């Protein structure tokens, strides 16, 4: 046997041993190592347990100080244009209609006489005459009747839209047989009653802007009425009052007269601005920092030791965003920006007009 043949046999034997024993053993060992590793990962993790999370942050309430500023107290509400309501002419005394001078649908001026009324006076007692030749007393002669007179006059200029009068008709004091509709217009809207706190004094006029209409104008004879008074009428002297009996309502209405030279039409929408005053160079705080919005309130002041204490303050004007602090705090005080537990939502029935940036309250007047 040659040496080459011997080497070949030995190599072949080594290959058979490798394939039959060594390689299968290595594979078994690798599988075992992997299995042990998986078991350890699944059931015997060596990572230390993480400790429970402990909060490290701190809630800090936003704080502010009063600052000097100017508050323009304008209350803005939506309204619409309406025809002036009819005004009643009432009977001034009890009696009988002597003559009617007005006609249904006729035009009258303020002060015109609409009808005359007479009331017969009670005649004084007359003593009987002396007895005649027969000795019998004669009855006293009938006295001529005497009357007192009065008139129903037009309380305003306009068109007669109701006329319930005829000659010889009996009438009583306070009856309203005549109604006159003025040839004019009013702007009427509603305002949330809580907004009345912002009007320290009732204005006599308002600034009105008609939607898609003429330039802003001053609306005069402004009236603010709530409850049944909002739709009750009086006789002469109240051309902006509603006619008829009082009607109970829960709304507060604002009504003012449109100047005769301004052209408007019933149903037009309008913005009404009530000027409630201006306070300049006064201490102010956001309304979110004050508990209470009218006359008096409470703020939450931070003490020297960091504690919070309640402090009463006296309030002045407000524009719906800022409120004047008349007494109770100074510029050096630090207060909570938000009243604890207060609802931060916008006031009910109010919103910020995106066009003008002013606070608008109320709905279209009815």
From TrEMBL:
Return the annotated region ranges for Disordered.
122-141
Q: Name one GO molecular function term.
A: efflux transmembrane transporter activity
Q: Name one GO cellular component term.
A: efflux pump complex
Keywords annotated in UniProt: Membrane, Transmembrane, Transmembrane helix
Give a yes or no for keyword DNA damage in this entry: no
Bilayer-crossing residues are: 21-43
Q: What is this protein called?
A: Biotin/lipoyl-binding protein
Organism (species):
Pseudoclavibacter terrae
